[in-house]
Prior knowledge:
InterPro entries: HD/PDEase_dom, HD_domain, YfbR/HDDC2. There is one protein chain. The chain has one domain (4-193): Hypothetical protein af1432 (Orthogonal Bundle), CATH 1.10.3210.10. Helices cover 66% and strands 0% of the residues. The protein has 13 helices and no strands. The chain has helices at 4-15, 24-28, 35-52, 60-69, 74-77, 82-87, 92-100, 106-118, 122-144, 148-160, 164-175, 180-183, 190-193.
Amino acid sequence: MEDFNKIADFLFEVGMLAKTPRSGFFFLGSGEQSVAEHTTRTIYIGYTLARLAKNQNINIDKIIKMCIFHDLSEARVSDLNYVHQKYTEKKESEAVKDLTNTLPFGQEIADIISEYEKRETLEAKIAKDADNLEFLISLKEQMDIGNIRAKDWLPAIEKRLLTEGAKNVAKAIISRDSDQWWFGDKNDEWWINRNKNNSA
């Protein structure tokens, strides 16, 4: 029989991801993002990379689940960036175990996270690439508004990518302005008069 109190606790816990900041931005000097915001875009990236993969047997559902749960432990251990991790032990596996042991579907979540962390399957590699590409996109957005440090961070992120699809997407991200999708032609008359007949 399900313990609905534990399920309610789980749903409250995942809400903490929206209040947990991604701490790397502290060192970058600009920008901010919660773990939940990072997770949301990672899911879209994971789906995109899965669709780009040539392997017809790829499990897109599993990739999406990995993207959803890849930072779940950070509701308990917070987001420790690379500087923090040099001096702090991050007990993510304990956090995952303590959480998933309380849920009737906890073993599925634990298995998904374990596969993701091992990086042995194509699905795990794609999900990790989605995680890194999300960071790359965030850095490019900061570059485009003038943070010169962000450019120095890009090469290390690019080198982490595991799949050809992710590497190709990374090149496209770096080569485009982050406002291209909506701003388009910056000389277009639309930005002056919105195609109105009068000048008001």
